[in-house]
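A common beginner's mistake is to predict each chain separately and then try to dock the pieces by hand. The better habit, illustrated here, is to supply every component at once so that their relative placement is modeled jointly.
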Amino acid sequence: MVLKFLPKGGKLPMTGRIGVVFFPAFDWSLGEKHPEREERLLYTRDQLLEEGLLDRSQFLELSPRIASDTDLLKTHFFVPTIAEQMHPANRVAIGACLNLADSWHKKEIHKGFALVRPPGHHAMQVVHGNRGFCSINNVAVLVDYLRANFGYKRIAVIDSDVHHGDGTQDIFYHDPEVLFISFHQDGRTIFPGTGFAHEMGGPKAFGTTINIPLPPGTGDEGVRLITEEFILPIIDDFKPEIIINSAGQDNHFSDPLGSLRLTSRGYGDFTKSINPDLVLLEGGYAIETALPYVNMSVLLALASEEYRDIKEPGYSKALDRDSKTVLEQIKETLYKLKANLKNPSQVKSDFTKQRGSWVRNKNIFYDTEYFFERQKEVLHDCPNCSGILEIISEAQHGNGKLYPLHGFTLFPSTCSFCRTKAKQWYEEKNKRNMIPSSVQLINKEW
Amino acid sequence: MLVGIDVGGTNTDLVVICEGSLMRQVKVRHNNNISDSIFEAVQTAFPLGDLAAVSTINISTTFITNLLAQRNLPPVALVQIPGLGLPSGSSILSAKNHTISGAVNHQGRILEDLDQNELNTMCMSLKQENFQAIGIVGKFSCRNNRLELAVGQTLKEKGICQKIYYGHKIAGRLNFPRRILNTIVHAGTFDSYKAFLNSVKEGLADFGYIGPINILNGDGSPVAIDKAVESPVNSLHSGPAATLLGAKALLPDNTSVMVIDVGGTTTDIGLILNGEPLESDKGIPLDVGYLQGRSFLTYSLPIGGNTPIRVESSKISFDYEASKLPAYFGGDTLTITDILCLSENRGLAKPTNLAWSRNVLDSLAKANQISTQYLLDTCIEQLLKELKDKICALQLHWERTPAYHLWKLLRKEDTIFPDSILALGEAAPSLVDKLAKVLGLRAIVPKEYAVTNALGAALSKPIFRLSFRFDTRMGTYQIPELGEQGTLTVSNLTRTEALTFATERLIALAKTEGYSFDSKDIEVLEEDIFNLVEQGVLKGRIIQLELTTPWSLSFYRKEENSL
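With all components supplied together, the output reads:
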């Protein structure tokens, strides 16, 4: 009996390659026992390598790069300076996303997955330090990069981490061209304690921030329900040019920090349903029992390959169904959200109108470094555009010193009149400023 | 006196190096019998049989490549244990695939044992199928080989099959699909390879040579012929390795250059960065998948000196599948060699041979009613375009090579892509100037251009490289290249202790091959330490090390090849 090889030149059919940047940062951590330590993606590496997944012709593994200051300063105010808040590992995580964006835009890849650490979705527009393991908001920088470099106008970010993506929400809260949807474990039960149904966007961007708090115990069935009944219709209505999934994997049934119950199959189903163009890893700390399997499922779902027969440890059929109580609570939340969208005036607002501007005050807790930031947001209204966002912030850092910031943000949709006005304010403020870099301007343009 | 032999697709080259100088070089066209071509080359180089002064013969051979390309291997059955994750690995080359239960995880913990009933049923099936060889491959068997060994034990007890091959022994690094492919290829080529190596040894003994014979591996390290038999797969891609070693020997230290080797049937392109050939991040590529193992990053074009030019209805193309004797060498076909010789401007081509090429060129042009100049120019343009595309693809591959550590990414960012080409192969002088002009690079053709591969083989010296993984939580260690797994005797192994153990093992390995090293010779290529934390408590650590003996080539007096 003689064995024949495959015919020469025979290839697997391809619908389009999936770009993958894997950057586990094996030589960086936030602390030797910190969840963001070198070990975090070690077993994911082991599993992906052992499965030989990235050998398959459907996947194209790319390299990360080091993001420049220019890339980062389009999104954040760094206090006191970017150098003091950035570690090279952060720049590489972002650089991975940007490399994927370049390849995706050039159509070298059909979709992309940045499997990187550290995560970013808790980093807000003003960065006084690290919070929720995040120093810089990977997905937000990616969104602003796509808009500034390639002119994409309408972008949807779906945050599926177990924790509310408060940083991403903060950055795009007043930006009507970015749809931000976050589903997460109810903020009354988990960090960061926000992400409630009434948080639906700033006064000029109502309905472009959507929060879906989920009761502890929600699993695949509950996520399928919110996806089909609520998320997909909203995306459909918004008509984004790009869909990005901020994909935290701490929704998994084995995650130590969360109380949701997703399986790797559920992640695959979700990915397949929303059909994102780019996916970024956020949180996820069940590093042996969840990440290796969930990441495989996401990769295979992106490649339209079979993922439902992945065998993961601890799985049981009971995980396929959610309890009646959980499903009813979810339905109630969806009902409220739909009602809010229909009746914006009924929705509780944190803003007060003061002399032609919308104002709110915030206290932001930096849990990694244990201090508070006090912030005042002033959205200067304009009948023709989304306005000018002015931020007055101060925080006493861990070294005991007080660091102020006065920032101005211009959105891509801000009109030329407002841009001129804002730049004048910025220059005047800067002239009188005694503290270097404490007056900053973010000028977002397409 | 060193002898290097390189068996290529068309020719077998042999060089003799004496006290760092090239003393003799021989090229024989081979008839597809590799052993015969080796003996013919040796006989031509040593007509008087004076091999007494030869201290080493290093051979780079395409034996395994040819065997695989012939598309038939003895049938091998595969027993795979895919465990958790994806439900099965590939069974692409096996004659029969059996998938059984059992699971080992990344720690090496057995999460699910073998099912005895299932095993018994499989054994009955295998007994009837009566395969000569069976491969047993489990997912994560490189961390814990117990399930593989248990299956093998059962097969032996039931008298099923004499030849059992274990995945963890043959391919001990991570990658289950590759482990399967390595095992099947190993099982399917082992006997033939052993017979071939024995014939080479006996044949050379007939010439009066009984000294060391080494087979060059794809990672550039020559292995003693008696040891080489243990790993047929490692000899794959030794040709490009020989080329890059030869190129390294000809260049000043720390040079960065692109190496282009125009052979008879293929053109291979590789990189030397800061004096070192660039290793492939993809293991060993085959047309059916990747194998575990080390090779250098090479991009190949199916075009060489013997590639015929085809003209059909004024459309000019290259016949990639064919290989013909060039008109320049007395054949009757117009080939790439003819085109390059007719268009080269270094005055190196022989007038008589050029006349033969021109005859065939004129005939072909006339028969297709096109001008000879048009035919010549179009061929050159097409060749340069294909080379340029391949070089760009290589550069893109290099730029995209993943980095999982900050320090590796930063080092990569500091590395500059070469701005020079080193051209090798018989057609090198004719090609390099044109190619360099098109690419905007500098060109070098060393005087040894026709035999650089054999030179690289001759000058190669063994490198010993091992990786180690210590897991203090599990109390185990693994040495993937040796397929070795063991228990740690200390409970809280420190980095220093791990390094000492690893260094001593590497030195001991080299010693068994007859090479002596001191601990200060040993270089640490990679080192990772992972704290293993469960619920905020440090439970142990994983220490990963990769060590190597120093890499050097035998002494060679190189000319000042200007860059």
